[in-house]
Specification:
81 residues, mainly beta, globular
Length: 81
């Protein structure tokens, strides 16, 4: 398990990336995670899911998270392509 406090986007036990990617295809976890001695992200923001590699998730539309709590959620139908 990845240490939450070790991520470069983590400050005060919260994610401050504007959007994270969820994946790898087999395991739903933050794929944006990386370590760095410097901290990144936007201190005024709390991380949300943007891109999602979990194709079997009911909220995944065209590899974008459309879960109701997501700021990117829309009512557009699932792609048939």
């Amino acid at each position: 398990m990845r240490g939450r406090g070790l991520c470069a986007y983590n400050r005060d036990r919260a994610c401050h990336a504007l959007a994270i990617t969820v994946g790898d295809i087999l395991h739903a976890h933050c794929d944006t995670f990386f370590t760095s001695p410097a901290k990144g992200g936007d201190r005024s923001a709390t991380g949300r899911v943007g891109a999602c590699k979990m194709s079997d998730c009911r909220h995944n539309i065209d590899f974008e998270c459309r879960a109701p709590a997501s700021p990117w959620a829309t009512s557009r139908p699932r792609s048939t392509a």
